[in-house]
Amino acid sequence: MRIGIIGLGRLGAASAEVFQRSGYELVGVSARSDASKARAEQRVPGVSVLSPQEVAARADCVILTVSDDAIAAVAEEIVAAGSLQAGNIVVHLSGRCGLEVLESARKVSAVPLACHPAMTFAGTPNDADLLASSPFGITSLPEHRQYAEGFVEAIGGSCTWIAEDKRTMYHAAMVFGANNLISLIAVAIQAMVAAGIEDAGGFLAPILRASLENTIELGPQALTGPVRRGDIGTLHAHIEALRELKPELIPGYVDFARFTAGMALREELNDAAILQRALVALQGEGAPE
Known about the structure:
By secondary structure, the chain is of the alpha/beta class. The protein has helices spanning about 10-20, 35-45, 50-60, 70-80, 105, 125-130, 145-155, 165-195, 200-220, 225-230, 230-245, 250-265, 270-280, and strands at about 1-5, 25-30, 60-65, 90, 110-115, 135-140, 160.
């Protein structure tokens, strides 16, 4: 199968590298910015850099790794140019979008697939290895599942099927678990640096890894700390320390403590009266002075 990739950001570059080393013929990539062109030269040297229409015209399978908001427009663009043939496969790797953004391709009897790698890509040299071993959240028509299974399994990934009407919720879950986790850990590192720990990331790494593994195994039951225990004095002490050293972190600390207390209450992780007192104690906090 001849593969063409439109969009060469972090995910596009990793995709190009993975499909090429998996034995597929990479017939071209579309890279518009200078940074994308540099990625093409570094990651898949010798592969032609073409317009989206030229890439699609050469390929049996077109992979769109453009932004979510651009997928429908790019698909319409290559359809209008006559670059897609009946039976061609058109794949986007977006988490949020389903098949609706590929409606123009479906109308010319191309095979639309939404295949999202459940992985984060930071632009590091091991992005291709991460992609190759990722689980994929896939949405397809029933008669097209074989196509998704074929190329996902060929690069080493695994398939999980996502209903079209659950696609946005699926992606929101990803944002909770990946993007928001990054923000939370970055803030924890900032606070630890303010506490005088130079190698804050290294110091936090063991407890962060243990917390992640415990949560995956136990869910909310893995929760520890002052919110679960209802240690109101400790919560106030934290807020005062932040007020002195990192006041900009107070709103996030208080909002997340409230959210955690609410979860602990719903999951009955402690006496309801204790958790209610924690919620009440946090009501007047939140804005740095």
